[in-house]
Each structure stands twice: as structure tokens, then as C-alpha cells.
Amino acid sequence: MKKITLFAVIALTVSCITATAQKINKKGMKKVLFVVTSHDKLGNTGEKTGFWTEELAAPYYALADNGVQIDIATPLGGQPPIDPKSEDPSAATEDTKRFDSDTALLAKLKNTKKLSDVNQADYDAVFYPGGHGPLWDLAEDKTSIALIESFYTHNKPVGFVCHAPGALKNVKVNGEFLVKGKKVTGFSNTEEEAVGLTKVVPFLLEDVLQKNGATYSKVADWHPYAVEDGLLITGQNPASSKLVAEKILNQLNAKK
Q: How far is the C-alpha of 133 from the C-alpha of 234, rounded, in Å?
């Protein structure tokens, strides 16, 4: 009887220690919110758009493989549209190949949170992958605009890649555009011209960023390039997505 009691005490103690360790680990784990477009129409072309696979996959794995917990939200909730061109074999990378067979991530994408249901206080940073979709919905979405402002004013990194800096178009802090006086990059006019969509998109990202007072810079088309100005981190094109994630990770680690 005494042996049974002793085993029970040991089992209870181990259980308590494990639960406490899990709580400590969860508390210490960094959390990043990914905000993804819900828009699937490429203007009046009759073609589809959405998010660009590499721009979600590469940053997702760069962060998740380093112990960061990631939630995904969209304006409408549920499955976000994937730009069909980003699924073409010619656009494939090691990260997109991993994405294609990642049943856990694909299931998470099917059940994204609704943007209006997320709270900045639950996360340590926010990241926006691109694709052309954000130029239509996230650029004008009041919930997204308020969310970016909230992350920024609470001293948390805000990251964007390719067309996603378009989500900054109407974001203001203390009455001024958030990008005013900031060093930024994003999908360039020459890259937009190269894909033949300068007359299709609702605005040219490079032009809008400069109009709102940003100091815009870029490198040669399709080359990796990311700019960090305080909490604001931006990348030029799909090839820059991992660079943005690495800069976010560095800021998160610096706050430990």
C-alpha cells in the first residue's frame, strides 16, 4: 500500500513539473501573426491572384524552425487564395516544395483566423506576405490598418515583403503616414512592368511609398533586398522574403 502511495506521489510530482515546464516554455515562446490577403481577382483581367506561395512559405519556415509560434489571419477568415502563377514549377523553391507536402501548414491555411478576431497583445510581431492581392484588400482594410498601427505603437516589429508594403498605404501614426521619413523597399515599378501589370494594379507600390514620404530604395529586379528602419522591415520581391523573416527573428531574439 505504501509503495502504491509513493508511486502516486512521484507520478503527481512529475506531472506537476512537466506542466510547469510546458507553461514556462509556452510563455517564453515568441509568437508572430501572419496576415494574408483574401483577394483573388486580378483587376478586370479575369485572371486570379492571391498570396505568393514563396513569400509565405520561406518566412514561415525561417521563423518556425527557430521555435517561433505562428498564427495566420485573413480579412475573411478561412482559406486564402493562392496566386496560380506562384504554384508554377518555374517558381518552385525548396521552401515551396516543403510547403506543398506540409499537411499541418496546409490545414492551418484552410482555417485561418478572421482578422477582426485577432489581438495585437497576443503577438510579438506581425508579418505580411505579398502577392498582388494585398493591393486591393489589405491596402484599404480598416482592421488591418489599425492592427499595423497598434503593433508599431506597442514597439513590435512589422514586416512586409514584395507587394505587401501596399498594406501600409493608409497607415498613420500620430497623424502622419507611418512610412514618412522611413527607409523602405517593395515591389519596384520596373518589376511591375516586367510582369505586365502596371495598368492592372490599383496603384504602383513604389510611387505610393514615395508619395507618402518614404525614402524608397531598390536593387536590380528579382534580386534579394530587405530594408530595416527601426521596427519597420520591408523586402523588395519574392527572393527577399527570407531576409525579412531573418530581420524579424533578430529583433525578437534581441528582446529576450
A: 17
* Residue carrying C-alpha cell 508619395: 211
Helix (H) or strand (E) holding 128: strand 125-128
Query: Each residue of 220-253: b (16+ CB within 10 Å) or e?
Result: eeeeebbbbeebbbbbbbbbbbbbbbbbbbebbe
- Render each residue's pLDDT in the chain as its tens digit; 256 residues: 444 454 444 444 444 444 433 443 445 799 999 999 999 999 999 999 999 999 999 999 999 999 999 999 999 999 999 999 999 999 999 999 999 999 999 999 999 999 999 999 999 999 999 999 999 999 999 999 999 999 999 999 999 999 999 999 999 999 999 999 999 999 999 999 999 999 999 999 999 999 999 999 999 999 999 999 999 999 999 999 999 999 999 999 998 6
The SS3 call for residue 177 is strand
Name the amino acid, one letter, at 174. Answer: N
- DSSP-derived 3-state class of residue 250: helix
Residues sharing a CB contact under 8 Å with residue 219, sequence separation 6 or more, in sequence order: 225, 236
* C-alpha torsion angle, residues 14, 122, 63, 116 (rounded to 10): 130
Q: pTM for this one?
A: 0.90
Of residues 92, 73, 76, the one with CA closest to residue 32: 73
First to last CA, the chain: 48
Angle between helical axes of 53-64 and 241-254 (0-180°, round to 10)? 30
Which grid coordinates are listed for 27? 510563455
- Read off the C-alpha cell for 173: 501614426
87 close to 51: Cβ distance less than 8 angstroms: no
In the three-class reduction of DSSP (H, G, I as helix; E, B as strand; rest coil), residue 159 is classed as strand
